[in-house]
Design a protein that fits this description.
The chain folds into two domains: about 200 residues, Rossmann fold; about 30 residues, no CATH class. About 35% of the residues lie in helices and about 20% in strands. The longest helix has 14 residues.
């Protein structure tokens, strides 16, 4: 079965369920790549062995074991994951599900929302994109501090009007162009990257991809292990 048909079958079987955080198959390498984005802090209540202090204290205690523990270190990085769903993204559903699972495993502070094609005045809290389950994008900017790292996942494949014009959205009338909303995200959050599942060889053939690359100041990376590593390095600088 061709890869596209297989991915579409998976999408249909999911029946618009949210990405499953327990999917593990194929996520290990993505987890390792995401670990480039780390900032440890001792904020957990659980304790872990402090090996160096234990050795030092045991030596000072005449060789009698003196266990020393410290609060466990956890990744303190805060991540906001914005996921494009539906349409041309159906082809990449398996890879996006793996990324979602890896991110859920790797980041303690992870929030996620959904959109279709481009980000406008509202996002969805579930990938079924039900009208009653929207969140205002301005509310999102008020809720999350500028210290959040933003990861946008999308194939960036759309009509140019969806980026540059009001009323350009294929699903509703957007009062402001998509590029205005992307700029607001960039002005509020210090670090943003765009992960694109499309083969980079094809990027130059797409007007919308090259335009979004420019709007993202070249912070578009391939949704692959290497691309994720590059994106995480950019976010941690």
């Amino acid at each position: 079965m061709p890869a596209q048909q297989s991915a579409l079958k998976v999408w249909q079987l999911r029946q618009y369920e949210d990405y499953d955080p327990d999917v593990e198959l194929g996520t290990r390498n993505m987890q390792m790549a995401l670990r480039r984005l780390r900032k440890f802090a001792r904020t957990a209540v659980d304790l872990e062995l402090d090996l160096n202090d234990t050795i030092r204290s045991t030596a000072n205690n005449g060789g009698f074991l003196q266990i020393k523990e410290v609060p466990e270190r956890r990744n303190a990085v805060k991540v906001l994951l914005l996921l494009d769903v539906g349409g041309s993204m159906d082809e990449y559903i398996e890879r996006c599900a793996q990324l979602f699972s890896a991110a859920r495993s790797e980041f303690k502070y992870l929030e996620y929302y959904y959109f279709h094609n481009f980000i406008y005045e509202s996002l969805w809290t579930t990938n079924s994109r039900r009208q009653e389950q929207r969140v205002n994008t301005l509310d999102l900017l008020r809720k999350y501090g500028s210290d959040y790292k933003i990861i946008i996942v999308s194939d960036a494949s759309m009509a140019r009007e969806e980026i540059t014009q009001k009323g350009g959205s294929v699903e509703h009338f957007n009062a402001e162009p998509g590029e205005v909303w992307l700029d607001r995200l960039q002005q509020h959050f210090r670090k943003l990257v765009w992960l694109n599942p499309v083969n980079p060889i094809k990027w130059q053939d797409s007007y919308s991809i090259t335009m979004i690359q420019r709007l993202m100041q070249a912070q578009m990376h391939h949704l692959s292990v290497t691309g994720i590593e590059q994106g995480m390095k950019a976010l941690i600088r």
